[in-house]
Design goal:
- The structure is a single chain.
- The radius of gyration is 29 Å and the shape is globular.
- The longest helix has 18 residues.
- It contains 32 helices and seven strands.
- 59% of the residues lie in helices and 6% in strands.
- Helix 7 links the parallel strand 3 and strand 4.
- Helix 4 packs parallel to helix 6, helix 10 packs parallel to helix 12 and helix 23 runs antiparallel to helix 24.
Length: 620
Protein backbone atom coordinates (compact mmCIF):
# COMPACT_ATOMS: atom_id res chain seq x y z
CA UNK A 1 0.00 0.00 0.00
CA UNK A 2 1.43 3.38 -0.98
CA UNK A 3 1.79 6.34 1.37
CA UNK A 4 -0.94 8.19 -0.48
CA UNK A 5 -3.32 5.28 -0.07
CA UNK A 6 -2.71 5.17 3.68
CA UNK A 7 -4.21 8.64 3.98
CA UNK A 8 -7.43 7.68 2.24
CA UNK A 9 -10.38 7.17 4.57
CA UNK A 10 -13.76 5.74 3.52
CA UNK A 11 -15.62 8.95 4.40
CA UNK A 12 -13.24 11.02 2.24
CA UNK A 13 -14.38 9.01 -0.78
CA UNK A 14 -18.09 9.62 -0.22
CA UNK A 15 -20.19 12.02 -2.26
CA UNK A 16 -22.33 12.34 0.86
CA UNK A 17 -19.75 13.10 3.53
CA UNK A 18 -20.66 15.18 6.60
CA UNK A 19 -20.40 18.96 6.43
CA UNK A 20 -17.55 20.75 8.21
CA UNK A 21 -18.41 21.54 11.83
CA UNK A 22 -15.78 24.19 12.59
CA UNK A 23 -18.44 26.96 12.78
CA UNK A 24 -20.74 25.06 15.13
CA UNK A 25 -20.85 24.46 18.87
CA UNK A 26 -19.88 21.00 20.03
CA UNK A 27 -22.90 19.24 21.55
CA UNK A 28 -20.70 17.49 24.13
CA UNK A 29 -23.47 16.33 26.48
CA UNK A 30 -25.65 15.16 23.60
CA UNK A 31 -22.78 13.30 21.94
CA UNK A 32 -21.80 11.67 25.22
CA UNK A 33 -25.36 10.41 25.73
CA UNK A 34 -25.56 9.06 22.17
CA UNK A 35 -22.24 7.24 22.60
CA UNK A 36 -23.59 5.67 25.79
CA UNK A 37 -26.63 4.40 23.86
CA UNK A 38 -24.36 2.99 21.14
CA UNK A 39 -22.29 1.16 23.73
CA UNK A 40 -25.42 -0.35 25.24
CA UNK A 41 -27.30 -1.37 22.10
CA UNK A 42 -25.12 -0.81 18.98
CA UNK A 43 -28.00 0.86 17.15
CA UNK A 44 -29.50 4.29 17.80
CA UNK A 45 -32.20 6.28 16.04
CA UNK A 46 -31.68 10.04 16.34
CA UNK A 47 -35.07 11.76 16.31
CA UNK A 48 -36.18 15.34 16.20
CA UNK A 49 -37.90 17.99 14.04
CA UNK A 50 -36.17 19.89 11.26
CA UNK A 51 -33.44 22.32 12.29
CA UNK A 52 -33.02 20.83 15.78
CA UNK A 53 -29.39 19.88 15.05
CA UNK A 54 -29.48 16.20 14.05
CA UNK A 55 -27.14 16.65 11.09
CA UNK A 56 -24.68 18.82 13.01
CA UNK A 57 -24.54 16.37 15.90
CA UNK A 58 -24.04 13.36 13.63
CA UNK A 59 -21.42 15.28 11.64
CA UNK A 60 -19.49 15.96 14.84
CA UNK A 61 -19.62 12.27 15.76
CA UNK A 62 -18.55 11.25 12.25
CA UNK A 63 -15.65 13.70 12.20
CA UNK A 64 -14.34 12.39 15.53
CA UNK A 65 -14.71 8.72 14.47
CA UNK A 66 -13.64 9.21 10.89
CA UNK A 67 -11.28 6.22 10.75
CA UNK A 68 -13.96 3.63 11.44
CA UNK A 69 -17.05 5.32 9.96
CA UNK A 70 -19.07 4.76 6.81
CA UNK A 71 -21.38 7.68 6.13
CA UNK A 72 -24.27 8.91 4.06
CA UNK A 73 -25.36 12.49 4.73
CA UNK A 74 -28.18 13.41 2.34
CA UNK A 75 -29.70 16.88 2.59
CA UNK A 76 -32.99 18.10 1.18
CA UNK A 77 -31.36 19.49 -1.96
CA UNK A 78 -29.70 16.19 -2.81
CA UNK A 79 -33.03 14.41 -2.42
CA UNK A 80 -34.13 16.04 -5.69
CA UNK A 81 -31.64 14.10 -7.77
CA UNK A 82 -30.19 11.22 -5.76
CA UNK A 83 -30.64 7.74 -7.26
CA UNK A 84 -30.49 4.20 -5.98
CA UNK A 85 -27.27 3.70 -7.91
CA UNK A 86 -25.67 6.74 -6.25
CA UNK A 87 -26.27 5.21 -2.82
CA UNK A 88 -25.22 1.68 -3.79
CA UNK A 89 -21.97 2.83 -5.38
CA UNK A 90 -21.13 5.23 -2.57
CA UNK A 91 -21.59 2.58 0.12
CA UNK A 92 -19.76 0.01 -2.02
CA UNK A 93 -16.69 2.23 -2.41
CA UNK A 94 -16.61 3.14 1.28
CA UNK A 95 -17.04 -0.45 2.49
CA UNK A 96 -14.48 -1.82 0.06
CA UNK A 97 -11.88 0.77 1.00
CA UNK A 98 -12.62 0.12 4.70
CA UNK A 99 -11.41 -3.48 4.60
CA UNK A 100 -9.16 -3.51 1.52
CA UNK A 101 -6.22 -1.11 1.79
CA UNK A 102 -4.83 -2.14 -1.61
CA UNK A 103 -8.03 -1.53 -3.52
CA UNK A 104 -7.80 0.19 -6.92
CA UNK A 105 -10.08 3.20 -6.50
CA UNK A 106 -10.15 3.91 -10.23
CA UNK A 107 -11.56 0.45 -10.87
CA UNK A 108 -14.09 0.78 -8.03
CA UNK A 109 -15.55 3.96 -9.50
CA UNK A 110 -16.20 2.17 -12.82
CA UNK A 111 -18.18 -0.63 -11.15
CA UNK A 112 -21.91 -0.98 -11.59
CA UNK A 113 -23.25 -1.84 -8.15
CA UNK A 114 -26.51 -3.64 -7.51
CA UNK A 115 -28.07 -4.34 -4.12
CA UNK A 116 -26.95 -7.95 -4.51
CA UNK A 117 -23.36 -6.89 -5.05
CA UNK A 118 -23.56 -4.45 -2.14
CA UNK A 119 -24.86 -7.22 0.11
CA UNK A 120 -21.81 -9.32 -0.77
CA UNK A 121 -19.56 -6.40 0.24
CA UNK A 122 -21.37 -6.12 3.56
CA UNK A 123 -20.67 -9.82 4.16
CA UNK A 124 -16.97 -9.29 3.40
CA UNK A 125 -16.93 -6.33 5.80
CA UNK A 126 -18.42 -8.41 8.62
CA UNK A 127 -15.85 -11.14 8.03
CA UNK A 128 -13.03 -8.58 8.14
CA UNK A 129 -14.34 -7.01 11.35
CA UNK A 130 -14.67 -10.36 13.11
CA UNK A 131 -11.23 -11.74 12.27
CA UNK A 132 -9.60 -8.40 13.18
CA UNK A 133 -11.80 -7.75 16.23
CA UNK A 134 -12.76 -4.31 14.91
CA UNK A 135 -15.93 -2.24 14.86
CA UNK A 136 -17.45 -0.10 12.10
CA UNK A 137 -20.00 2.67 12.53
CA UNK A 138 -22.58 3.48 9.86
CA UNK A 139 -23.90 7.04 10.16
CA UNK A 140 -26.94 7.64 7.95
CA UNK A 141 -28.41 11.13 8.01
CA UNK A 142 -31.49 11.89 5.91
CA UNK A 143 -31.31 8.51 4.18
CA UNK A 144 -34.27 6.79 5.81
CA UNK A 145 -36.52 9.73 4.87
CA UNK A 146 -35.71 9.43 1.16
CA UNK A 147 -38.48 8.55 -1.27
CA UNK A 148 -36.75 6.65 -4.06
CA UNK A 149 -38.94 4.77 -6.51
CA UNK A 150 -39.48 1.03 -6.25
CA UNK A 151 -39.06 0.90 -2.44
CA UNK A 152 -35.29 1.11 -2.75
CA UNK A 153 -34.71 2.42 0.78
CA UNK A 154 -36.70 -0.46 2.27
CA UNK A 155 -34.66 -2.94 0.21
CA UNK A 156 -31.45 -1.27 1.34
CA UNK A 157 -32.40 -1.56 5.00
CA UNK A 158 -33.15 -5.25 4.51
CA UNK A 159 -29.51 -5.94 3.56
CA UNK A 160 -27.63 -3.56 5.88
CA UNK A 161 -25.14 -5.47 8.06
CA UNK A 162 -26.89 -5.27 11.43
CA UNK A 163 -24.40 -7.08 13.63
CA UNK A 164 -22.84 -6.75 17.09
CA UNK A 165 -19.60 -5.48 15.51
CA UNK A 166 -21.37 -2.79 13.50
CA UNK A 167 -22.88 0.32 15.08
CA UNK A 168 -25.66 2.24 13.38
CA UNK A 169 -26.59 5.87 13.92
CA UNK A 170 -29.64 6.77 11.86
CA UNK A 171 -31.48 10.09 11.91
CA UNK A 172 -35.12 10.60 11.11
CA UNK A 173 -37.60 13.45 11.26
CA UNK A 174 -40.62 11.12 11.21
CA UNK A 175 -41.61 8.07 13.25
CA UNK A 176 -43.20 6.59 10.14
CA UNK A 177 -39.86 5.95 8.47
CA UNK A 178 -38.57 3.78 11.31
CA UNK A 179 -40.76 0.99 9.94
CA UNK A 180 -37.85 0.25 7.61
CA UNK A 181 -35.68 -0.82 10.52
CA UNK A 182 -36.03 -4.53 11.34
CA UNK A 183 -33.86 -4.48 14.48
CA UNK A 184 -34.56 -3.01 17.86
CA UNK A 185 -32.98 0.43 18.08
CA UNK A 186 -32.51 2.76 21.02
CA UNK A 187 -34.22 6.10 20.43
CA UNK A 188 -32.71 9.44 21.30
CA UNK A 189 -34.36 12.82 20.78
CA UNK A 190 -32.07 15.78 20.14
CA UNK A 191 -32.64 18.61 22.59
CA UNK A 192 -32.53 22.36 22.03
CA UNK A 193 -29.35 24.26 22.85
CA UNK A 194 -28.73 24.97 26.49
CA UNK A 195 -27.29 28.16 27.98
CA UNK A 196 -23.69 26.91 28.00
CA UNK A 197 -23.91 25.83 24.35
CA UNK A 198 -25.36 29.18 23.32
CA UNK A 199 -22.57 31.03 25.11
CA UNK A 200 -20.01 28.81 23.43
CA UNK A 201 -21.56 29.57 20.04
CA UNK A 202 -21.72 33.31 20.83
CA UNK A 203 -18.71 34.10 23.08
CA UNK A 204 -19.91 37.69 23.60
CA UNK A 205 -23.20 36.43 25.05
CA UNK A 206 -23.90 36.86 28.77
CA UNK A 207 -25.96 34.35 30.74
CA UNK A 208 -28.95 36.70 30.94
CA UNK A 209 -28.77 37.25 27.17
CA UNK A 210 -28.56 33.49 26.56
CA UNK A 211 -31.73 33.08 28.60
CA UNK A 212 -33.41 35.77 26.49
CA UNK A 213 -32.28 34.02 23.28
CA UNK A 214 -33.75 30.73 24.51
CA UNK A 215 -36.98 32.53 25.32
CA UNK A 216 -37.06 34.32 21.95
CA UNK A 217 -35.86 31.49 19.68
CA UNK A 218 -36.65 28.35 21.64
CA UNK A 219 -32.99 27.38 21.69
CA UNK A 220 -33.23 26.19 18.07
CA UNK A 221 -29.72 25.76 16.65
CA UNK A 222 -30.43 27.30 13.23
CA UNK A 223 -31.78 30.49 14.79
CA UNK A 224 -28.97 30.75 17.33
CA UNK A 225 -26.44 30.15 14.52
CA UNK A 226 -27.94 33.08 12.61
CA UNK A 227 -27.68 35.29 15.68
CA UNK A 228 -24.05 34.18 16.03
CA UNK A 229 -23.27 35.19 12.44
CA UNK A 230 -24.99 38.54 12.89
CA UNK A 231 -22.98 39.27 16.03
CA UNK A 232 -19.77 38.46 14.14
CA UNK A 233 -20.71 41.09 11.54
CA UNK A 234 -21.01 43.74 14.28
CA UNK A 235 -24.68 43.55 15.29
CA UNK A 236 -25.44 43.56 19.00
CA UNK A 237 -27.60 40.91 20.70
CA UNK A 238 -29.82 43.70 22.10
CA UNK A 239 -30.45 45.12 18.60
CA UNK A 240 -31.30 41.66 17.25
CA UNK A 241 -33.70 40.95 20.10
CA UNK A 242 -35.32 44.37 19.84
CA UNK A 243 -35.78 44.00 16.08
CA UNK A 244 -38.72 41.62 16.66
CA UNK A 245 -37.05 38.84 14.66
CA UNK A 246 -38.98 36.08 16.38
CA UNK A 247 -39.00 33.60 13.49
CA UNK A 248 -36.21 32.02 11.46
CA UNK A 249 -37.30 33.77 8.26
CA UNK A 250 -37.25 37.16 9.97
CA UNK A 251 -33.71 36.45 11.15
CA UNK A 252 -32.73 35.34 7.64
CA UNK A 253 -34.22 38.53 6.21
CA UNK A 254 -32.34 40.66 8.73
CA UNK A 255 -29.11 38.92 7.74
CA UNK A 256 -29.94 39.18 4.02
CA UNK A 257 -30.50 42.95 4.13
CA UNK A 258 -27.17 43.48 5.89
CA UNK A 259 -25.10 41.37 3.49
CA UNK A 260 -26.79 41.35 0.06
CA UNK A 261 -26.08 44.86 -1.11
CA UNK A 262 -25.59 44.44 -4.86
CA UNK A 263 -26.96 42.47 -7.81
CA UNK A 264 -23.86 40.28 -8.27
CA UNK A 265 -24.23 38.77 -4.81
CA UNK A 266 -27.97 38.35 -5.27
CA UNK A 267 -27.41 36.52 -8.56
CA UNK A 268 -25.03 34.05 -6.94
CA UNK A 269 -27.66 33.32 -4.29
CA UNK A 270 -30.34 32.86 -6.96
CA UNK A 271 -28.26 30.45 -9.00
CA UNK A 272 -27.55 28.34 -5.89
CA UNK A 273 -31.17 28.46 -4.68
CA UNK A 274 -32.65 27.24 -7.98
CA UNK A 275 -29.95 24.72 -8.80
CA UNK A 276 -31.09 21.15 -9.45
CA UNK A 277 -27.65 19.77 -8.60
CA UNK A 278 -24.36 20.70 -6.98
CA UNK A 279 -22.99 24.20 -7.44
CA UNK A 280 -19.24 24.72 -7.45
CA UNK A 281 -17.12 27.84 -7.69
CA UNK A 282 -16.07 26.66 -11.15
CA UNK A 283 -19.71 26.35 -12.19
CA UNK A 284 -20.47 29.86 -10.92
CA UNK A 285 -17.45 31.13 -12.83
CA UNK A 286 -18.75 29.45 -15.99
CA UNK A 287 -22.35 30.67 -15.57
CA UNK A 288 -21.38 34.31 -14.96
CA UNK A 289 -18.31 34.23 -17.20
CA UNK A 290 -16.36 35.67 -14.28
CA UNK A 291 -12.87 34.75 -12.97
CA UNK A 292 -12.72 32.45 -9.96
CA UNK A 293 -10.94 35.17 -7.97
CA UNK A 294 -13.94 37.48 -8.36
CA UNK A 295 -16.37 34.67 -7.45
CA UNK A 296 -14.31 34.05 -4.30
CA UNK A 297 -14.48 37.73 -3.41
CA UNK A 298 -18.28 37.80 -3.77
CA UNK A 299 -18.81 34.58 -1.79
CA UNK A 300 -16.66 35.82 1.10
CA UNK A 301 -19.15 38.64 1.65
CA UNK A 302 -21.97 36.19 2.44
CA UNK A 303 -21.76 34.70 5.94
CA UNK A 304 -24.54 32.15 5.35
CA UNK A 305 -22.71 30.52 2.44
CA UNK A 306 -20.54 27.47 3.16
CA UNK A 307 -17.63 26.50 0.94
CA UNK A 308 -16.37 22.93 1.18
CA UNK A 309 -13.44 22.53 -1.22
CA UNK A 310 -15.03 23.71 -4.47
CA UNK A 311 -18.65 23.09 -3.42
CA UNK A 312 -20.77 26.14 -2.58
CA UNK A 313 -24.02 25.83 -0.58
CA UNK A 314 -26.20 27.55 1.98
CA UNK A 315 -25.59 27.08 5.69
CA UNK A 316 -28.97 25.37 6.15
CA UNK A 317 -32.03 24.12 4.33
CA UNK A 318 -33.88 27.02 5.92
CA UNK A 319 -31.70 29.42 3.94
CA UNK A 320 -32.47 27.53 0.71
CA UNK A 321 -36.17 27.88 1.38
CA UNK A 322 -35.90 31.53 2.36
CA UNK A 323 -33.78 32.58 -0.64
CA UNK A 324 -35.95 30.56 -3.04
CA UNK A 325 -39.01 32.43 -1.80
CA UNK A 326 -37.21 35.78 -1.69
CA UNK A 327 -36.11 35.52 -5.33
CA UNK A 328 -39.04 33.55 -6.75
CA UNK A 329 -40.03 36.33 -9.14
CA UNK A 330 -36.60 35.91 -10.83
CA UNK A 331 -36.72 32.11 -10.87
CA UNK A 332 -37.01 31.76 -14.67
CA UNK A 333 -33.95 33.93 -15.19
CA UNK A 334 -31.82 31.75 -12.90
CA UNK A 335 -33.12 28.55 -14.49
CA UNK A 336 -32.22 29.98 -17.91
CA UNK A 337 -28.70 30.72 -16.68
CA UNK A 338 -28.30 27.05 -15.78
CA UNK A 339 -29.77 25.90 -19.10
CA UNK A 340 -27.58 28.27 -21.14
CA UNK A 341 -24.48 27.12 -19.28
CA UNK A 342 -25.34 23.49 -20.00
CA UNK A 343 -25.97 24.14 -23.70
CA UNK A 344 -22.75 26.11 -24.03
CA UNK A 345 -20.57 23.48 -22.35
CA UNK A 346 -22.25 20.10 -22.77
CA UNK A 347 -19.98 18.72 -25.53
CA UNK A 348 -20.14 14.92 -25.29
CA UNK A 349 -20.92 14.95 -21.59
CA UNK A 350 -24.29 13.30 -20.86
CA UNK A 351 -24.00 13.13 -17.06
CA UNK A 352 -26.13 16.25 -16.56
CA UNK A 353 -29.06 15.15 -18.74
CA UNK A 354 -31.47 14.37 -15.86
CA UNK A 355 -30.52 17.68 -14.27
CA UNK A 356 -31.15 19.75 -17.41
CA UNK A 357 -34.51 18.01 -17.90
CA UNK A 358 -35.45 19.07 -14.37
CA UNK A 359 -34.51 22.68 -15.23
CA UNK A 360 -36.85 22.66 -18.23
CA UNK A 361 -39.53 21.06 -16.08
CA UNK A 362 -39.12 23.63 -13.27
CA UNK A 363 -39.35 26.37 -15.89
CA UNK A 364 -42.61 24.91 -17.19
CA UNK A 365 -41.08 24.38 -20.65
CA UNK A 366 -42.77 21.10 -21.61
CA UNK A 367 -41.44 21.23 -25.17
CA UNK A 368 -37.92 21.62 -23.80
CA UNK A 369 -38.40 18.52 -21.66
CA UNK A 370 -39.57 16.42 -24.60
CA UNK A 371 -36.79 17.70 -26.87
CA UNK A 372 -34.21 16.41 -24.39
CA UNK A 373 -35.86 12.99 -24.07
CA UNK A 374 -35.08 11.56 -27.47
CA UNK A 375 -34.16 7.88 -27.84
CA UNK A 376 -30.42 8.54 -27.71
CA UNK A 377 -30.66 10.64 -24.55
CA UNK A 378 -32.90 8.07 -22.84
CA UNK A 379 -30.20 5.45 -23.42
CA UNK A 380 -27.51 7.86 -22.22
CA UNK A 381 -29.42 8.54 -18.98
CA UNK A 382 -29.50 4.84 -18.15
CA UNK A 383 -25.88 4.25 -19.18
CA UNK A 384 -24.75 7.14 -17.01
CA UNK A 385 -26.84 6.37 -13.92
CA UNK A 386 -27.24 2.58 -14.22
CA UNK A 387 -30.49 3.25 -12.39
CA UNK A 388 -33.94 2.05 -13.42
CA UNK A 389 -35.36 4.34 -10.73
CA UNK A 390 -33.64 7.42 -12.18
CA UNK A 391 -34.78 6.52 -15.70
CA UNK A 392 -38.33 5.90 -14.52
CA UNK A 393 -38.39 9.22 -12.70
CA UNK A 394 -37.17 11.04 -15.82
CA UNK A 395 -39.65 9.23 -18.08
CA UNK A 396 -42.46 10.34 -15.74
CA UNK A 397 -41.33 13.95 -16.19
CA UNK A 398 -41.50 13.41 -19.96
CA UNK A 399 -44.98 11.87 -19.70
CA UNK A 400 -46.27 14.79 -17.62
CA UNK A 401 -44.86 17.24 -20.19
CA UNK A 402 -46.47 15.32 -23.07
CA UNK A 403 -49.84 15.36 -21.30
CA UNK A 404 -49.61 19.15 -20.83
CA UNK A 405 -48.86 19.57 -24.53
CA UNK A 406 -51.52 16.99 -25.52
CA UNK A 407 -48.83 15.40 -27.68
CA UNK A 408 -50.45 12.03 -28.39
CA UNK A 409 -47.36 10.46 -29.96
CA UNK A 410 -45.14 11.48 -27.01
CA UNK A 411 -47.79 10.33 -24.52
CA UNK A 412 -47.88 6.88 -26.14
CA UNK A 413 -44.07 6.66 -26.24
CA UNK A 414 -43.56 7.59 -22.59
CA UNK A 415 -46.48 5.42 -21.44
CA UNK A 416 -44.98 2.39 -23.18
CA UNK A 417 -41.56 3.11 -21.70
CA UNK A 418 -43.05 3.56 -18.23
CA UNK A 419 -44.95 0.27 -18.46
CA UNK A 420 -41.85 -1.55 -19.66
CA UNK A 421 -39.77 -0.14 -16.80
CA UNK A 422 -42.46 -0.87 -14.21
CA UNK A 423 -42.57 -4.52 -15.22
CA UNK A 424 -38.87 -5.00 -15.85
CA UNK A 425 -38.38 -7.18 -12.77
CA UNK A 426 -41.66 -9.08 -13.04
CA UNK A 427 -40.36 -11.95 -15.12
CA UNK A 428 -41.77 -15.46 -14.97
CA UNK A 429 -38.17 -16.55 -15.41
CA UNK A 430 -37.47 -15.44 -11.84
CA UNK A 431 -40.24 -17.67 -10.49
CA UNK A 432 -38.97 -20.55 -12.62
CA UNK A 433 -35.43 -20.03 -11.37
CA UNK A 434 -36.67 -19.97 -7.76
CA UNK A 435 -38.60 -23.21 -8.26
CA UNK A 436 -35.50 -24.85 -9.77
CA UNK A 437 -33.39 -23.94 -6.73
CA UNK A 438 -36.09 -25.27 -4.41
CA UNK A 439 -36.37 -28.52 -6.35
CA UNK A 440 -32.59 -28.93 -6.12
CA UNK A 441 -32.72 -28.18 -2.39
CA UNK A 442 -30.44 -25.16 -2.74
CA UNK A 443 -32.15 -22.89 -0.23
CA UNK A 444 -29.23 -20.47 -0.01
CA UNK A 445 -29.45 -19.61 -3.72
CA UNK A 446 -33.25 -19.49 -3.50
CA UNK A 447 -33.19 -16.92 -0.71
CA UNK A 448 -30.43 -14.87 -2.38
CA UNK A 449 -32.53 -14.79 -5.56
CA UNK A 450 -35.54 -13.49 -3.62
CA UNK A 451 -33.49 -10.76 -1.97
CA UNK A 452 -32.01 -9.58 -5.28
CA UNK A 453 -35.28 -9.22 -7.17
CA UNK A 454 -38.21 -6.93 -7.33
CA UNK A 455 -40.12 -4.46 -5.22
CA UNK A 456 -41.72 -5.14 -1.85
CA UNK A 457 -44.74 -6.72 -3.52
CA UNK A 458 -42.61 -9.00 -5.71
CA UNK A 459 -40.35 -9.97 -2.85
CA UNK A 460 -43.40 -10.83 -0.73
CA UNK A 461 -44.78 -13.11 -3.45
CA UNK A 462 -41.44 -14.88 -3.92
CA UNK A 463 -41.17 -15.50 -0.18
CA UNK A 464 -44.71 -16.92 -0.25
CA UNK A 465 -43.77 -19.31 -3.06
CA UNK A 466 -40.81 -20.39 -0.93
CA UNK A 467 -43.12 -20.94 2.06
CA UNK A 468 -45.66 -22.86 -0.02
CA UNK A 469 -42.86 -25.19 -1.14
CA UNK A 470 -41.90 -25.76 2.51
CA UNK A 471 -45.51 -26.48 3.40
CA UNK A 472 -45.90 -28.98 0.54
CA UNK A 473 -42.84 -30.80 1.84
CA UNK A 474 -44.19 -30.76 5.41
CA UNK A 475 -41.27 -28.61 6.57
CA UNK A 476 -41.64 -25.73 8.99
CA UNK A 477 -40.95 -22.37 7.38
CA UNK A 478 -37.72 -20.87 8.71
CA UNK A 479 -38.20 -18.21 11.37
CA UNK A 480 -36.03 -15.69 9.51
CA UNK A 481 -38.24 -16.14 6.43
CA UNK A 482 -41.38 -15.64 8.52
CA UNK A 483 -39.84 -12.49 10.00
CA UNK A 484 -39.04 -11.17 6.53
CA UNK A 485 -42.58 -11.88 5.32
CA UNK A 486 -44.12 -10.15 8.33
CA UNK A 487 -41.77 -7.20 7.91
CA UNK A 488 -42.34 -6.82 4.16
CA UNK A 489 -46.11 -7.28 4.47
CA UNK A 490 -46.33 -4.24 6.74
CA UNK A 491 -44.45 -2.14 4.17
CA UNK A 492 -46.77 -2.88 1.25
CA UNK A 493 -49.10 0.10 0.71
CA UNK A 494 -52.20 -2.04 0.44
CA UNK A 495 -54.74 0.72 -0.13
CA UNK A 496 -52.84 1.90 -3.23
CA UNK A 497 -52.91 -1.50 -4.97
CA UNK A 498 -55.12 -2.04 -7.98
CA UNK A 499 -57.68 -4.84 -7.91
CA UNK A 500 -55.48 -6.90 -10.24
CA UNK A 501 -52.30 -6.40 -8.19
CA UNK A 502 -54.05 -7.03 -4.86
CA UNK A 503 -55.57 -10.23 -6.25
CA UNK A 504 -52.21 -11.36 -7.60
CA UNK A 505 -50.40 -10.87 -4.27
CA UNK A 506 -53.23 -12.31 -2.17
CA UNK A 507 -53.38 -15.46 -4.32
CA UNK A 508 -49.83 -16.36 -3.28
CA UNK A 509 -50.46 -15.41 0.36
CA UNK A 510 -53.65 -17.43 0.80
CA UNK A 511 -52.16 -20.97 1.05
CA UNK A 512 -49.73 -20.01 3.84
CA UNK A 513 -50.93 -16.70 5.29
CA UNK A 514 -54.71 -16.58 4.70
CA UNK A 515 -55.24 -13.79 7.26
CA UNK A 516 -52.76 -11.59 5.39
CA UNK A 517 -54.43 -12.42 2.06
CA UNK A 518 -57.78 -11.33 3.43
CA UNK A 519 -56.27 -8.17 4.94
CA UNK A 520 -54.99 -7.11 1.51
CA UNK A 521 -58.36 -7.79 -0.09
CA UNK A 522 -60.32 -5.96 2.59
CA UNK A 523 -58.06 -2.93 2.28
CA UNK A 524 -59.73 -2.25 -1.07
CA UNK A 525 -63.22 -1.72 0.34
CA UNK A 526 -64.45 1.09 -1.86
CA UNK A 527 -66.46 1.39 -5.04
CA UNK A 528 -64.81 1.77 -8.40
CA UNK A 529 -66.08 3.95 -11.23
CA UNK A 530 -68.57 1.31 -12.29
CA UNK A 531 -70.08 0.98 -8.82
CA UNK A 532 -68.51 -2.43 -8.14
CA UNK A 533 -67.01 -3.08 -4.72
CA UNK A 534 -63.28 -3.38 -5.32
CA UNK A 535 -62.67 -5.86 -2.52
CA UNK A 536 -65.37 -8.20 -3.87
CA UNK A 537 -63.81 -8.11 -7.32
CA UNK A 538 -60.35 -8.70 -5.88
CA UNK A 539 -61.63 -11.53 -3.68
CA UNK A 540 -63.03 -13.48 -6.62
CA UNK A 541 -59.95 -12.85 -8.73
CA UNK A 542 -57.76 -14.02 -5.84
CA UNK A 543 -59.83 -17.16 -5.40
CA UNK A 544 -59.51 -18.12 -9.05
CA UNK A 545 -55.77 -17.41 -9.10
CA UNK A 546 -55.23 -19.39 -5.89
CA UNK A 547 -57.17 -22.38 -7.18
CA UNK A 548 -55.20 -22.33 -10.42
CA UNK A 549 -51.74 -21.80 -8.90
CA UNK A 550 -51.82 -23.53 -5.55
CA UNK A 551 -54.87 -25.81 -5.34
CA UNK A 552 -52.76 -28.73 -4.17
CA UNK A 553 -51.20 -26.67 -1.36
CA UNK A 554 -54.39 -25.68 0.41
CA UNK A 555 -55.26 -27.27 3.72
CA UNK A 556 -56.99 -26.72 7.02
CA UNK A 557 -55.69 -23.18 7.44
CA UNK A 558 -58.63 -21.74 5.53
CA UNK A 559 -61.20 -23.38 7.79
CA UNK A 560 -59.83 -21.31 10.68
CA UNK A 561 -60.89 -18.12 8.94
CA UNK A 562 -64.29 -16.65 9.60
CA UNK A 563 -66.12 -14.11 7.53
CA UNK A 564 -69.32 -12.16 8.05
CA UNK A 565 -69.74 -12.19 4.28
CA UNK A 566 -71.69 -15.33 3.32
CA UNK A 567 -70.48 -15.18 -0.26
CA UNK A 568 -66.84 -15.06 0.82
CA UNK A 569 -67.35 -17.86 3.35
CA UNK A 570 -68.87 -19.94 0.57
CA UNK A 571 -65.92 -19.21 -1.67
CA UNK A 572 -63.48 -20.27 1.04
CA UNK A 573 -65.30 -23.61 1.25
CA UNK A 574 -64.81 -23.94 -2.50
CA UNK A 575 -61.13 -23.19 -2.21
CA UNK A 576 -60.71 -25.70 0.65
CA UNK A 577 -62.06 -28.68 -1.29
CA UNK A 578 -60.19 -27.69 -4.41
CA UNK A 579 -57.18 -29.97 -4.85
CA UNK A 580 -56.00 -32.37 -7.54
CA UNK A 581 -57.48 -35.37 -5.75
CA UNK A 582 -60.98 -33.97 -5.35
CA UNK A 583 -63.34 -36.21 -7.34
CA UNK A 584 -65.77 -34.70 -9.79
CA UNK A 585 -68.83 -35.76 -7.79
CA UNK A 586 -67.52 -33.89 -4.71
CA UNK A 587 -67.09 -30.73 -6.77
CA UNK A 588 -70.55 -31.12 -8.35
CA UNK A 589 -72.21 -31.70 -4.96
CA UNK A 590 -70.58 -28.56 -3.58
CA UNK A 591 -71.54 -26.51 -6.63
CA UNK A 592 -75.16 -27.68 -6.46
CA UNK A 593 -75.39 -26.21 -2.96
CA UNK A 594 -74.39 -22.75 -4.18
CA UNK A 595 -77.10 -20.16 -4.78
CA UNK A 596 -75.66 -17.99 -7.55
CA UNK A 597 -75.30 -19.45 -11.04
CA UNK A 598 -72.39 -17.11 -11.70
CA UNK A 599 -70.54 -18.54 -8.67
CA UNK A 600 -71.25 -22.08 -9.90
CA UNK A 601 -69.73 -21.29 -13.29
CA UNK A 602 -66.74 -19.64 -11.59
CA UNK A 603 -65.94 -22.75 -9.49
CA UNK A 604 -66.52 -25.23 -12.30
CA UNK A 605 -64.35 -23.28 -14.72
CA UNK A 606 -61.53 -23.05 -12.18
CA UNK A 607 -61.67 -26.80 -11.42
CA UNK A 608 -61.65 -27.69 -15.12
CA UNK A 609 -58.69 -25.37 -15.80
CA UNK A 610 -56.76 -26.92 -12.92
CA UNK A 611 -57.45 -30.55 -13.82
CA UNK A 612 -57.64 -30.42 -17.61
CA UNK A 613 -54.09 -31.74 -18.08
CA UNK A 614 -54.78 -34.67 -15.77
CA UNK A 615 -57.62 -35.91 -17.93
CA UNK A 616 -60.32 -35.23 -15.38
CA UNK A 617 -63.83 -35.67 -16.69
CA UNK A 618 -66.96 -33.78 -15.76
CA UNK A 619 -70.43 -35.16 -16.28
CA UNK A 620 -73.04 -32.53 -16.49
Amino acid sequence: MSASQELILPTSLSQFSPKPTFNTVERATTISTIKHHIKESNNVIIEGPKNIGKTTTLSQIANTHIKDSIVLFVDDRQKLSITDNDICKDLYIQVRSFYDGDVNLGELVKQKVSLKKLKEEFSSLLYYLKINNKTATFILDGVIDLDIKDDFIAKLFLILPFDKQVNFLISTKSNKTTRYIPNKFERYSINILNIDEIREMIPECKQSQAEELICAYGGMPDKIATVSRLVKTGESIEDILQNNCSGANELYDYEYKLEVTDKAVEDILGVIAFSQGKVTKNKLSSIFKTPISEINSLIERISFILVNDDLVEFASQGHYNFISDKLKTKKIRYLDLHIDDYNNNKGNDTSSLPEIIRYYNEKGDSQGVISQLNEEHIQDIYKESSSIAELTRTIQVGLDAAVKLKDRAAINKFNLLKCALTNINKSEAVVSELECYLTEGDHSKALNLIESNGSYEEKLQLYCIYSIYQKKNKTDVRQDVLDKINFIFEKVEKSKLSVERASDIAADLLPVFPEKALKIINSLDQLDAAGQNKSDAAFYKMSLLTLTRHGESLGDDLSKLSSTDDKRTEMFKSVEIFNPDSPADKIIKHVDEMDESGDKIFILRAWIQKNYDKGAQLNS
